[in-house]
Write a structure and sequence with these properties.
By secondary structure, the chain is of the alpha+beta class. The chain has one domain: Beta Barrel (Porin). 16% of the residues lie in helices and 59% in strands. A hairpin with a 2-residue loop joins strand 1 and strand 2.
């Protein structure tokens, strides 16, 4: 019994030694981080938790008020698009390459809604994304988990079931409704490009 106890203690000491070495090597590894981001889906406030040097969990809350920044062609008519959003999400950032920790794979889930109002002449249409949750996949550069200032740039897409498109006002226009449904802006996969600035501690 005594030999078994000594053997367990010896194996434990050898096992935790690499952990101490890893901790010493990553003495500048931050535990937490806060950041702000901007993307086509609005601004967001983000909180990060680093489980280790390779993995970071990010929790985000974001959205935008109704803004009219886009124009599209609807059945031959130049039409204005006003958009708003409200959402929250949880994302895992994984750094697969030891020699390139600036490169990240990102996956997560979001809940919320995206609303577009399309004004085409005297007609108004509504495009709503309200399916929940939706999946996010992307790639990122930057996003250091070391203590201090952090910047990050991400590209990816939201995989959705597509929007509900309806006409709100004006004479019924099936051709315009079909044109909006077929517009790439309102597809099932919504592209994302995001810039973030923050502080790790």
């Amino acid at each position: 019994m005594k030999r078994l106890f000594i053997s367990i203690v010896a194996v434990s000491l050898f096992a935790i030694q690499p952990a101490f070495a890893e901790e010493a090597k990553d003495s500048n590894l931050a535990k937490y981080g806060v950041s702000i981001s901007t993307s086509p889906f609005g601004g967001s406030l983000n909180f990060s938790y680093n489980t280790c040097s390779k993995n970071t969990w990010q929790f985000s809350f974001g959205g935008s008020p109704e803004l009219g920044l886009l124009s599209i062609d609807v059945n031959g008519t130049d039409s204005k698009v006003k958009s708003s959003s409200s959402w929250a999400g949880a994302f895992l950032n994984h750094r697969p390459l030891e020699s390139a920790k600036w490169f990240r794979l990102v996956a997560g889930l979001g809940i919320g809604s995206i609303n577009h109002q399309v004004t085409s002449g005297d007609k108004k249409f509504r495009v709503r994304y309200s399916e929940n949750p939706v999946a996010y996949l992307g790639l990122g550069v930057g996003g250091s988990n070391q203590k201090g200032f952090m910047w990050a740039f991400d590209i990816g897409y939201l995989a959705t079931g597509g929007p509900d498109v309806s006409q709100e006002s004006g004479d019924a226009d099936a051709a315009a409704l079909k044109d909006i449904e077929d517009n790439l802006l309102f597809g099932n996969a919504l592209p994302n490009a995001q810039l973030s600035l923050g502080w790790n501690f």
